[in-house]
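HOLO CASE FILE
Compound: S-adenosylmethionine
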Amino acid sequence: MTSYAKTARVPATEFGAAKKQLGQHFLHERHYIEKIVLAVNPQPGDKLVEIGPGQGAITFPLLKKHGELTVIEYDRDLIFPLTEAARDIGKLEIIHKDVLQVDFTALATGLVPERKTIKLVGNLPYNLSSPILFHCLEHAAAISDMVFMLQKEVVDRMGAEPGSKVYGRLSVMLQAYCRVQPLFDVPPGAFRPPPKVDSAVVRLVPRPAEQIRVSDPQRFEAVVRAAFGQRRKTLRNALNGTCSSEQIVAAGLRPDARAEQIEVDGFVTLANLA
Ligand code: SAM
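Model generated. Tokens follow.
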């Protein structure tokens, strides 16, 4: 039982059963909830936005600490119980929408000039984790910080370095735009119902515009996708039709190297040449 439960009007049981198709695994272990709240570390004036509040495991402690919070929840059955339970705790704005349809940049506009960015937090629905991460990248300029719970295997890929078996498209795309900092692991038993996999919490900090070297994001995406599309092939073969051998050499890369050996910067240089 979490500490907010005494102040919440709606008991957790009235939120209904978890829906598998919406990736609902509700966090219940207080220890991990507290660690997430500490990682988010809301500061006065922050615009905090949570993706997928569910039954409020992270929502209510954050609301209690920060006083206001915007949440994005797709499951209509959770909207009323969340509204009721938040009433005595703080100001909860609920956006009842698919997060992939939410314009984070619009959420950040209208904020005071010195804080034109939002902070995101979420125990994400694992079936949608990659689309949500790529959606966040599209709005990276409007986001100052993200603290996300994901499958541990995904967090390992996000933070992987060249030469690692799990270094791939997700690692390169995210690291070109963000600093990726894995924080801690969370076992299946911390959720109800428990997922089949281990989970982990990661922080993503978008790089300031002047540090991002990608000149054409679509071209960069296409080069990285092609390079890892057939990861056992040499760059020359995997990029056939996307980049010439001359361009690969001009980028300072070896055409007989494999994508998994190339640093993020190498992909950026190559994409910028074309
Ligand atoms: N934050 C809660 C917790 O930690 O217990 C719930 C996390 S649960 C893993 C994922 C949440 O995302 C669920 O509440 C689910 O309904 C919501 N969700 C699933 N798909 C969504 C979507 N497309 N847009 C917004 N929320 C979604």
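CASE NOTES: Residues 188 and 194 are 5 Å apart (CA to CA). The beta strands are 26-27, 47-51, 68-73, 91-96, 118-123, 143-151, 178-186, 191-192, 199-206.
CLOSED: yes
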